[in-house]
Write a structure and sequence with these properties.
Helix content: 10-25%
Mean pLDDT: 96
Distance between the termini: 35 Å
Oligomer: single chain
Radius of gyration: 17 Å
Largest sheet: 7 strands, mixed
Low-confidence stretches: none
Strand content: 25-35%
Strand order of the largest sheet: 5-4-3-6-7-12-11
Number of strands: 12
Shape: globular
Structural class: alpha/beta
Number of helices: 6
């Protein structure tokens, strides 16, 4: 991958902010992802993220940390935090901003154990598709201390398939409706498309049950999003 996400974060961090990331999916048109939002402080975060930061405890793993906003907040509160991301640029930004333990790493390569694991900004996206989800959850289970927790958010995007008559135009023979192709462009460059999974809560709960995890709804957001807490 070209790591356009990381390049954009580095541009903003280094004072070279001139334009935003452009995103789109296989079912939606282009939209801007403002770079300043990725550097938000606690007061600028949505309620779901603020709740996560209050629920986090012990030794914490921040998966897909981006610019490190969540890690920095928790670190400043005295928690021991490890931030990981597959983007080299993102991890460089985290270190520049003061995250003490930041590493370029895929979630499936993590071996340390934690009290709290964070998967935010559509945390189910890292699972890629529904069939892959049990594999990722089974990998996360041994990373949790006995009384540990996974705090994860996502959205039920069924509403995006609704037509003017209130019906839905999903193909019953196609894959799960939350499986999307995700596209990023930045400064006239296009990233290699990648898979993104949006999971409705009941489906997440069902998959968690199948791998021996309990899934509880913590909070519903204002835009079909939610926060869930996974435990043994």
């Amino acid at each position: 991958m070209k790591d356009l996400f990381g390049k954009a974060l580095l541009d903003y961090q280094n004072g070279n902010y001139s334009e935003d990331i452009i995103t789109s999916t296989s079912i939606s048109d282009e939209d801007k992802l403002p770079l300043p939002y990725l550097f938000r402080n606690y007061s600028e975060m949505p309620k779901i993220e603020q709740n996560v930061l209050h629920l986090a405890q012990g030794k914490i793993l921040d998966i897909g940390c981006g610019a490190g906003s969540h890690s920095l907040y928790l670190q400043d509160k005295g928690f021991k935090v490890k931030a990981i991301d597959i983007s080299k640029g993102a991890i460089e930004v985290c270190k520049k901003r003061g995250v003490l333990n930041a590493e370029v790493k895929n979630i499936l390569d993590e071996t340390e154990t934690f009290d709290t694991i964070l998967l935010l900004m559509n945390g189910t996206g890292v699972f890629e598709d529904l069939d892959n989800t049990p594999r990722y959850l089974n990998h996360l289970k041994p990373l949790l201390h006995p009384n540990g927790q996974i705090l994860i958010d996502s959205s039920d995007i069924k509403y995006m398939y609704e037509d003017d008559d209130g019906g839905f135009w999903m193909d019953a023979n196609s894959n799960y409706y939350g499986e999307l192709d995700y596209y990023i462009s930045y400064k006239n460059e296009n990233e290699i498309p990648f898979k993104m999974l949006y999971l409705d809560f009941e489906t997440l709960k069902s998959v968690c049950n199948s791998v021996g995890l309990q899934c509880n709804l913590v909070l519903k957001g204002e835009h079909h999003d939610y926060l869930a807490r996974l435990t043994f």
